[in-house]
Amino acid sequence: MLKLAAAIVCILTVAEGCVYKGSECAPYTVVEQHADYEIRSYPSLTWVTTTEEDRLARVARYKAFMRLFGYISGKNDRTQIINMTVPVRMKMTPHDEEMIHEMSFMVPAEFAQDPPVPNDKLITVSKEGPKMYAV
């Protein structure tokens, strides 16, 4: 009975949205459960993304984060304040002797269909189709 109650709570959490430490997170459904990881299915999500190139990863991450933070702090066409979400997605790609650091913030559900346009030309908005991840 306790397992059934826990399963219902998990389903409701995923169906109604996800919150982690007070921040909206990407909703997902667990497809497979394994000892050390799980396979998750995520719906279509909208992301704001920027890239930064630097030999020092911490410098590139800081610059990228602050640029995206500016966007959610009102540096957009509506001067709209947007709540922080999780996860913050990072992708690193080698380029010559440096790394290209791509950072993305998930756009909250309330803005996903019509997100504010970034004032900074180094920020792009994109919608991605459903995806599966091992977490």
Characterization of this structure:
It comes from Nephila pilipes. It holds the Pfam family SOUL. The protein has 135 residues and is of the alpha+beta class. It is 26% helix and 40% strand. It contains 3 helices and 10 strands, in the order αβββββαβββαββ. The protein has helices at residues 2-16, 57-72, 109-112, and strands at 18-20, 23-25, 29-33, 38-42, 45-54, 85-86, 88-95, 98-106, 124-128, 131-134. The strands form 3 sheets. A 4-stranded antiparallel sheet has the order 7-8-5-9. Strands 1-2-6 form a 3-stranded mixed sheet. A 3-stranded antiparallel sheet has the order 3-4-10, with no helix packed on it. The longest helix has 16 residues, at 57-72.
Put the structure in a nutshell.
Belongs to the HEBP family. The chain has 135 residues and is of the alpha+beta class. Helix content is 26%, strand content 40%.
Shape field? globular
Q: Helix content range of the residues, please?
A: 25-40%
Helix/strand/pairing category: alpha+beta
The major β-sheet equals: 4 strands, antiparallel
Helix-strand string? HEEEEEHEEEHEE
Beta-strand proportion: 35-45%
The side-by-side strand order for the widest beta sheet comes to: 7-8-5-9
Low-confidence stretches: 1-16
Average pLDDT, to the nearest integer? 88
**How many strand units?**
10
- Report the C-alpha radius of gyration, rounded: 17 Å
Helical segment count: 3
> What is the first-to-last residue Cα distance?
27 Å
